[in-house]
Amino acid sequence: MATIAVIGTLDSKGHEHAFVAEEIRKRGHQAILVDAGTLGDPQVKPDRTRDDVLKAAALQLPEIEDRGQRVGVMAEALPLFLTQLVEGGEIDGVISLGGGGGTAIATAGMRALPVGFPKLMVSTLASGNTAHYVGTKDIVMMPSIVDVAGLNRISRMVFARAAGAICGMVETEIDEKEAKPLIVASMFGNTTDLVNMAKDLLEEEGYEVLVFHATGTGGKTMESLIESGMVSGVLDLTTTEWADELVGATLSAGPERMDAMTKAGIPAVVAPGCLDMANYGERESVPKELEGRNFYIHNPQVTLMRTNADECAKLGKIMAEKANANDAPVSIMMPKKAISVISAEGQPFHDVEADDALFCAIRENANVEVCEFDEEINSPAFAQACAAKLLELMKTGQTGGSTQS
Known about the structure:
Blueprint: E1 3-8, H1 10-26, E2 30-35, H2 50-56, H3 67-87, E3 93-98, H4 100-111, E4 119-123, H5 131-134, E5 140-143, H6 153-171, E6 182-187, H7 192-204, E7 208-213, H8 217-227, E8 231-236, H9 241-247, H10 260-264, E9 268-270, E10 277-280, E11 295-299, E12 302-306, H11 309-325, E13 330-335, H12 352-365, E14 369-373, H13 380-396, E15 403-404
Parallel strand pairs: 1-2, 1-3, 3-4, 4-5, 6-7, 6-8, 8-9, 9-13, 13-14, 14-15
Antiparallel strand pairs: 10-12, 11-12
């Protein structure tokens, strides 16, 4: 028997959440009814009150009855409250029903929970863009079809199915007996060969390698998984999202990119993969102020802009500082002949001055091991060196001084 938290704004949707709780109990599980309401009194008696939720974050609802402010406070408190329940082993899953406010509150709490922990949100917003509700977590968004405003023929059917779904999720057992230690890796089209070769070598040594496409969302998701504590090593060879963050292009993963390895204290091998390029949409979408820069049409929907020497110097410093912050061992690997397919000699993004600015900034600012290779980024030799270095760091927890090969 599992215990499922049923979270809702019980001042406006109490009867609907009580219905879901009862459906869960019919299936042999326990349900904890949690009030995340922000205005009136709850319509039904909760098992955990809104004061219990607020107390977890030492917060109080504003005296002024401004719904937006109150929703914001509850959305801040619920993640801490749910985290306490999960860490204390009190719940095995979570479900909620909501419109705009309820969805904002409940998914804020769900995003704080680990990947793999059952989370189901029945929402009036589930058929639209849910990226800001889901974030980088495995939240199941289920359309409510009708508004969460009473029990009727349609809503009872949807809510009952949702209760059955969360029960099925908590009942599902995951066999972790033969689970291999995890390594995460970042990849782009221009570093596919590199990462695939390194992946094969690491898997031969008994690791499972999860590859993330460095498209902004991919980097954020990888960072979230690293921070979760499930990862043994980081193979961050495609740090291109930092180029987009620096110049304001479309595939930024935010200024926290490369911070998770430090928070988790995990060994990492990093490289300046694809820092020669920033991503925009179709050619006509590129900002007018960038005219005159070196562009490459990757496909009709993607236009790449070559980063210049000034930008590369900044990127090299950022990479070094991110690596320096990690107390676990980190090595920076530099393929001096090319940092992407199209930055090699004879290719459209070949720019010796920009690459030299990048490499010099890394050397000057790094307090960690910097390994330099007279190779292109997708060469078998570089891939083998990256895989071997990560295995070394995970095994010994030590790094040496700067090296060249």
